[in-house]
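Appendix C reproduces, verbatim, an entry submitted by the partner laboratory led by Prof. M.T., so that reviewers can inspect both the input and the predicted structure.
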Amino acid sequence: MTLIKISLLFMATAVAEIVGCYLPWLVIKQDKPLWLLLPAAGSLALFAWLLTLHPNAAGRTYAAYGGMYIAVALVWLRVVDGVTLTRWDLVGAGVALTGMAIIALQPSTGG
């Protein structure tokens, strides 16, 4: 898989995970309707399925995914929560994405 395909798949995976966790947060913290738990469950199921689409071992996929999750969560923080990102946020996301690329693009060793 190319870095672009891996990144896009990880981005979609991160959004599915964040939505799946954000909706219950709205129900619990902001007294939103309970029916929001249904799309939350569907979103978390989608998240789990998307992780299975990667050819690498599960642990390696989860490790690489973590870097993209950090970056997408910071975008969520800015866009949804309206919080201005700091230079530390941006540098941290860059480091995390670099780690993701290193893990995801390593030469195949058969395992």
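The chain has one domain: 3-104. Additional entries are available on request from the coordinating office.
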